[in-house]
Design brief:
Distance between the termini: 40 Å
Structural class: mainly alpha
Radius of gyration: 17 Å
Shape: globular
Helix content: over 70%
Number of strands: 0
């Protein structure tokens, strides 16, 4: 729902509604996770972490809260916390593409390229049609200094999911940097 309201541009009223639900049901992990998603969408990642921690206190295995807190930690450049959250998520469900792909991204961001590639390979195996993995493969190739291979990965991401904005941005940045 947060993504829908973000696209519609009406996060204000929706946010007030979610905050009211969270106050009325403070022990409901699903509502707390939704509030965490809202704060992440608003780029209030410290608040998102606080809310996700509250949700995880109520349900330590809530997959949405684990993935959400991992993403919030990544936005705060707290990669150890992100890796811990995504690994916890994957201990519950090894087949969860989003956590596997996000784990790969967290490893890449913390310059653990070998672990990042391993996680991305597992994500690709789970969902070869998903463009997000190719964006992350592109990040890996950029980190390894192979911008031409990176641009090919961004192209694959765009082929699979033409609406993946970050693939276009990264492709353009690589061409701008390297010609």
């Amino acid at each position: 729902l947060v993504e829908l309201h973000t696209r519609k541009g009406d996060l204000g009223a929706y946010g007030a509604s979610v905050e009211a639900k969270a106050r009325a049901f403070p022990g409901d992990a699903d509502i707390q996770a939704e509030l965490g998603q809202l704060y992440s969408a608003l780029r209030q990642n410290e608040r998102a972490v606080t809310v996700y921690l509250r949700a995880l206190n109520d349900d330590p295995d809530d997959l949405s809260a684990l993935n959400g807190i991992g993403l919030a930690y990544m936005s705060l450049h707290q990669y150890d916390g992100a890796v811990d959250a995504f690994e916890h998520c994957l201990r519950i469900d090894r087949e969860l593409f989003q956590c596997q792909n996000n784990l790969g991204a967290a490893y890449l961001e913390s310059n653990q390229l070998k672990l990042g590639k391993e996680a991305l390979d597992r994500a690709f195996h789970l969902a070869p049609e998903r463009g997000e993995t190719f964006v992350n493969y592109g990040y890996l190739d950029d980190a390894l200094g192979d911008w031409q291979k990176a641009t090919a990965e961004y192209g694959k991401a765009i082929e699979r999911y033409p609406y993946l904005r970050e693939a276009y941005i990264d492709l353009a940045l690589d061409y701008e940097r390297h010609g």
